[in-house]
Design brief:
Elements (H helix, E strand, L loop, with lengths): L6 E3 L2 H9 L3 E2 L5 E4 L7 E12 L6 E2 L5 E2 L2 E12 L4 E14 L4 E9 L11 E3 L8 E3 L6 H9 L4 H17 L5 E3 L4 E3 L3 E7 L4 E3 L3 E7 L8 E2 L4 E7 L4 E2 L4 E7 L4 E3 L3 E7 L4 E3 L2 E3 L2 E2 L4 E2 L5 E3 L1 E3 L3 E2 L4 E3 L11 E3 L4 E2 L4 E3 L2 E3 L4 E3 L1 E2 L12 E5 L2 E5 L7 H12 L19 H20 L6 E4 L2 E4 H27 L7 H8 L10 E4 L2 E4 H13 L5 H13 L1 H17 L8 H27 L16 H12 L6 H25 L3
Parallel strand pairs: 2-4, 3-4, 4-7, 7-8, 8-9, 8-12, 9-13, 9-14, 13-15, 14-16, 15-17, 16-18, 17-19, 18-20, 19-21, 20-22, 21-23, 22-24, 22-25, 23-26, 24-27, 25-28, 26-29, 28-31, 29-32, 30-33, 31-34, 32-35, 33-36, 35-37
Antiparallel strand pairs: 1-3, 5-6, 10-11, 37-38, 39-40, 41-42
Length: 665
């Protein structure tokens, strides 16, 4: 044990006072103390092994204003360093092999110990998606959703994956130790057993039953709370997260700003930024950012999710009693399940899709985003694009940034909140093409179309084509207007020069790496750089994801420009003023049309049928007044007001650009 210069051997006089206070030690020569150490602050303490003690001259003042003097009372310590102004009271068994930093409070606990050499959860394999282990991700302290996505789902890039896993192994080995750490200003109250656990600064552990083999990566800006009845084994919990109320955890990574509570149970699962799990159960899931499940009897199993809300009783099946639990499901960002929904894996559900009912066939709706997937008479009915007109979808997109609970200086996951992006719009292009081909191949007047074990009504298909076109027009117009904003062009050449992309990166397919939206070509380039040794550390890998995230809007224009050329049938260096005005007019119409659809969808929440249960002891007038007191009036509703304001703003914006274009010589 290497000592700082201000630590010294304990004196005979101090030993005498300690002995009179009921303290004992098998070898006082192995006890070192900081200058200013007061032996009277240690009472009924058994010391053994190498011990280092700070000074105890400042009290701890709790939330109620009660002052508790620092020091050690009724405890046994073995091979421990104890910082200054620490409180250790009433330890039933012992604390062994721990470095306890300054201002820590430990009261009424059983055993806190480090056994052998531990990596504190780092390097522990988590069997996500495939319970049999085919997609294992090894945890480490700063595992991002994007890194985990690549490790789990890019097995075809075996060399790169092996290199990343070697980096994690090296990190785990470098952080292994026979001594645990309890970071400064941490609080540990009424806990039974803590074994091989590393606690960061300002950790708050209260009433937990057992914590075994893990890390609590708390920090001052964003502390971690582990609450009553919790049992956790083989885990890593990141800053700002809460695990409480008898939650059971085994082999789980819990990212920043997560809340797992109310008897939640999870094993072999990864939870990333701002996930929430209550009451239900998770098994082998990849919970990307903002995956939330609130209800009892809800099982999420062997699937990947993000920006997802699971309805009560949602369930999936990942095996068909043949070769075991080998099947996986993919629910792309923004998907939801209603109460009592069921999905048979393998399946892939497209972005922002609402799943209702029970679906007993394997299906793929990846290229048909913003849809409803409905069960009717044991058949799966797909309603393409209909979720684009749902005010709930827009509300979700608006609330996610506001519900970011991460307060720490470092955000591990790079989260893109955009509802419309090259990722989702590319799927709208594909969806439009799929629907058009289905229509072309079928006789005129067909009532139902079949697609991937699903049925699409004729009217739904026609409407879906229109909705996807509206979404495409809106996104491409947004990009064009953003590119041309606040610039007065004197000539058509100036305008064309501005429209030309600044870089070539961004063309082609885009992917969603569990929250991070980027061109697939750039993901492939990153994997190439890993294989070549250009990216040779976990830090460099994390920085690459940050760079991708920060480059989004530059790359987005490159992609949008390519799509504008495809839609316009000409290159940007040949676009005319009339072409631009036509795109803007289509954009303006799409924005207003969609906002009007959202407006009418919101109005449904204010109809008489929605007032059922209000004005319990009165007539219609009382019902209306009661409803308005609780829910407010339709026109003053914040979402409705925002839609109306959006129509005005965007119409004005479009008109301004059109006027500017008309002034070009």
């Amino acid at each position: 044990m290497r000592l700082k210069e201000n630590y010294r051997s304990i004196t005979g006089a101090e030993t005498k006072i300690l002995t009179l206070n009921g303290c004992s030690c098998d070898d006082w020569n192995r006890v070192k103390v900081k200058e200013g150490f007061d032996p009277s602050r240690c009472v009924n303490v058994i010391f053994s092994g190498d011990i280092t003690l700070g000074h105890f001259n400042e009290p701890f003042i709790d939330e109620s204003g009660v002052s508790i003097p620092s020091g050690i009372l009724n405890a046994r310590l073995h091979n421990c360093t104890v910082g200054s102004n620490v409180i250790i009271n009433n330890i039933g068994d012992y604390i062994a092999n721990y470095h306890i930093e300054d201002n820590v409070v430990i009261k009424n606990c059983g055993k806190i110990n480090t056994e052998g050499i531990s990596t504190f959860g780092n390097g522990i394999p988590v069997a996500v998606l495939n319970e049999t282990g085919g997609r294992v991700v090894k945890m480490w302290d700063k595992l991002s959703a994007h890194e985990a996505y690549i490790i789990a789902l890019y097995k075809h890039r075996g060399i790169a994956i092996n290199i990343i896993e070697k980096m994690v192994d090296d990190y785990s080995a470098s952080h292994s130790s026979g001594t645990g750490t309890i970071g400064h200003n941490s609080r540990i109250f009424n806990c039974n057993n803590i074994r091989n656990v590393k606690l960061g600064p300002f950790s708050h552990i209260e009433g937990s039953i057992a914590l075994n083999e893990g890390s609590v990566n708390s920090c001052e800006a964003d502390p971690v709370f582990i609450g009553p009845g919790v049992i956790m084994e083989h885990f890593i919990v990141c800053s700002g997260s809460i695990v409480t109320e008898s939650t059971l955890i085994d082999k789980c990574f819990i990212g920043q700003g997560c809340v797992l509570a109310k008897h939640y149970s999870a094993e072999n699962s990864l939870f990333f930024a701002n996930c929430g799990g209550y009451h239900g159960e998770a098994c082998s899931i990849f919970a990307g950012p903002y995956t939330v499940t609130h209800h009892k009897s809800t099982l999420l199993i062997a699937g990947i999710f993000s920006f997802m809300n699971a309805g009560s009783g949602s369930n999936q099946s990942n095996h068909m009693y043949k070769l075991g639990p080998i099947h996986q499901g993919i629910m792309e960002r923004g998907s939801k399940t209603t109460s009592d929904s069921y999905m048979l894996w393998p399946a892939r559900i497209g972005p922002f899709t609402l799943v209702m009912g029970r679906h007993y066939k394997n299906m793929d709706t990846s290229s048909l985003p913003f849809s409803y997937l409905i069960e009717s008479n044991d058949e799966s009915i797909l309603v393409p694009g209909i979720n684009l007109r749902s005010v709930g979808t827009i509300r979700d997109a608006q609330k996610w940034p506001l519900r970011d609970r991460r307060k720490g200086p470092l955000k591990i996951d790079q989260v893109n909140f955009n509802l419309l992006s090259p990722y989702t719009i590319r799927k709208m292009f594909d969806g439009r093409e799929i629907l058009q081909k289905l229509k072309a191949k079928s006789p005129t007047g067909t009532s139902y179309y079949k697609y991937n074990n699903m049925k699409i009504k004729g009217a739904s298909l026609e409407r879906g084509i229109g909705l996807y076109q509206t979404g495409i027009n809106k996104f491409l117009g947004n990009s064009l207007i953003k590119r041309l904003e606040k610039t007065e062009f004197k000539t058509i050449e100036e305008m064309r020069k501005r429209l030309a992309p600044d870089r070539q990166k961004g063309k082609g397919e885009w992917v969603d790496l569990a929250g991070l939206i980027a061109p697939k070509s750039e993901v492939d380039r990153l994997l190439d750089d890993i294989e070549s040794g250009k990216v040779n550390s976990l830090q460099a890998l994390s920085e690459s994801f940050i760079e991708m995230h920060n480059s989004y809007y530059d790359w987005e224009w490159t992609w949008s420009c390519e799509m504008i050329e495809e839609e316009a049938g000409t290159t940007v260096n040949k676009l005319t003023v009339e072409n631009v005005i036509r795109i803007v007019e289509r954009w303006k119409k799409s924005v207003v049309d969609l906002d009007n659809l959202l407006y009418e969808d919101a109005r449904k929440e204010f109809t008489l049928s929605s007032m059922t249960g209000f004005g319990i002891d009165g007539g219609d007038e009382v019902k209306k007044l009661d409803f308005e007191q609780v829910r407010g009036e339709f026109e003053s509703n914040s979402v409705v007001a925002a839609i109306q304001e959006h129509i005005i703003q965007k119409t004005t914006l479009g008109d301004e650009l059109t006027d500017r274009m008309k002034r070009i010589g």
